[in-house]
């Protein structure tokens, strides 16, 4: 299979969906590649730096039959459009009794680890998970990035696509042709029997690397990637934990009210999974601070492989 | 108030310091000694310096992602700025902020800002505080042409005019927001034209002429200090370098003739000519200033390099008062 980067996979997804459906339009302050060349300036719009109005325009155009893709570029900038996301996009369909569909896709990069400091290193997906009414995807590989973004564009609801900054240059195999990954389906990225590691985005590959190291110590790790945060594929996560009896959840957002917290709850409140648990559910998340700039502090704030490894050893030690 | 001889010499020195600081920041970033993003202010020095020369220490400014120039012009110490870029404990933010979140509240520099338009509401708050304090202090709010498309810009002009707050809005129209020209972003190329709708003076000034910027600001600051409310000053200028760099400088996508024509209007060369013709400084004196700036920056880099990285045990420090 051909190998392409995460960024190329995302660009392919957009281009293919634009070819497939003339109602797909783009709005952003800038684009990778030159989409104007192929699709023209009426479908590819360079916007002013006006996140609030552009976010609302995406929603409005979606309600009037278009399939807009609004790229905030960084999740940082989406906060300027909070009203449009929280009070409008997430609620508009339900609030109006399902009178119309709003097939808009909001895209943004997310995550830290590249020295961009507090405002530009955020992982706030759980804030959006909390606002009922949005679908949320968070891929960890180029193939998933392409397949999920294509599904997001075809979905008839507002979907937020979180695209991890640290993964942009990561490469991986991506199938040729119309490659779709369904929204709401997790994937077991490695099978194992002793401990389940649920990783998000960048931390899927980190979990796989840790699993490889621990295999040498005779510890068998299963790595599960939810891939979609809303709707969350609780069945796949629970099935894995019922098998291993132990779970470590890894994410670069702080733990409080996080996706990791939600996953922990989904596991613990399921009677069958609860009975299968042999150790406390464990989270490995970022420190509860804005991501600091200095490399020494940034490393300390975000989870590292040694934190994941230590957590695995701990849940093994704590096992009943 | 006419500028004194020492005032002009000081302004020239500050302009040179700003330029050399950012040229060095680029080299340090390429060398991997500093991290994150660098947004050079090179080419726009006359704006920060011409504006801030009208301010006292108790006046305040808010800045942008392209904030090093505003910081230096407002009187921040380049050693502590450099230490911040190096991510060290002696930086202004103890290494927690970096280039885009640099601030020195002691000199009234209320912060760079990684959010386009994000500084405008904060500046309005500072101006409200100044009005309430009644000591005649003013706030200057620096922002780019791109920020004028944000709702916050319009909200800021509206409320400060309605409340007659002591604030000067300084739009640095450097012709681009990232790769987009002003014409792509706005229905008209003059940001100052918005002033009329908000019932305040809107003044366009040559942002590469530090004396013109100084004079226009003087009037706007006087109006604010008198209690007559805000003004919008639009400084037409140009950034010489790329919008932003991370690991390597990105290629420039702007027309080469355009870049060349603006470089021919170098604000520093122009002011150097001015001060020589007025007999304020001689050519050897200017050379001495340049050497001094270079030595100061060597010292700033040495200071930064000697400062330790923050200890991980301080990760949770500074969260709450
Ligand atoms: C709310 C927000 N949207 C987008 C960005 C990304 N961004 C950073 S600087 C910039 C261009 C700003 O242009 P302008 O205001 O003219 O300032 P200049 O860079 O020219 O100094 C953009 C789009 C941001 N930082 N904040
Ligand atoms: Mg600009």
How is the secondary structure organized here?
The complex is a heterodimer of chains A (320) and B (321).
Chain A: E1 3-5, H1 6-20, E2 24-28, H2 35-39, E3 44-46, H3 51-63, E4 67-74, H4 75-78, H5 82-89, H6 92-95, E5 105-110, H7 125-130, E6 135-137, H8 142-154, E7 159-164, E8 171-173, E9 187-190, E10 195-199, H9 202-216, E11 221-225, E12 228-230, H10 234-244, E13 247-254, H11 259-268, H12 271-276, E14 282-286, H13 295-301, H14 305-317
Parallel strand pairs in A: 2-3, 2-4, 4-5, 5-7, 6-7, 10-11, 10-13, 13-14
Antiparallel strand pairs in A: 1-8, 6-12, 9-11
Helix pairs in contact in A: 1-8, 3-5, 9-14
Chain B: H1 5-30, H2 45-52, E1 60-62, H3 68-73, H4 78-85, H5 119-133, E2 139-144, H6 151-162, E3 167-173, E4 176-177, E5 180-181, H7 182-185, E6 202-206, H8 210-226, E7 231-236, H9 256-263, H10 267-277, H11 283-306
Parallel strand pairs in B: 1-2, 2-3, 3-7, 6-7
Antiparallel strand pairs in B: 4-5
Helix pairs in contact in B: 1-2, 1-10, 1-11, 2-8, 4-11, 5-6
The complex binds thiamine diphosphate and magnesium ion.
Task: Explain what you see.
The complex is a heterodimer of chains A (320) and B (321). Chain A has 320 residues and is of the alpha/beta class. Chain A folds into two domains: 3-173, 3-Layer(aba) Sandwich (Rossmann fold); 187-317, Rossmann fold. Chain A has helices spanning 6-20, 35-39, 51-63, 75-78, 82-89, 92-95, 125-130, 142-154, 202-216, 234-244, 259-268, 271-276, 295-301, 305-317; strands spanning 3-5, 24-28, 44-46, 67-74, 105-110, 135-137, 159-164, 171-173, 187-190, 195-199, 221-225, 228-230, 247-254, 282-286. In chain A, the strands form three sheets. Chain A has a seven-stranded mixed sheet, sandwiched between helices. In chain A, helix 1 (6-20) runs parallel beside helix 8 (142-154) and helix 9 packs across helix 14 (305-317). The longest helix of chain A is centred in the first third of the chain and has 15 residues, at 6-20. Chain A is globular and about 60 Å long. With 321 residues, chain B is an alpha/beta fold. Chain B has one domain (5-307): Rossmann fold. Chain B is built from eleven helices and seven strands. In chain B, the strands form two sheets. Chain B has a five-stranded parallel sheet, sandwiched between helices. Chain B has a two-stranded antiparallel sheet with strand order 4-5. In chain B, helix 6 links the parallel strand 2 (139-144) and strand 3 (167-173). The longest helix of chain B has 26 residues, at 5-30. Chain B is globular and about 50 Å long. Chain B starts with a helix and ends in a 15-residue tail after the last helix. The interface between A and B is large, with 33 and 40 residues. The complex binds thiamine diphosphate and magnesium ion. The site of magnesium ion has 6 residues of chain B, from strand 4.
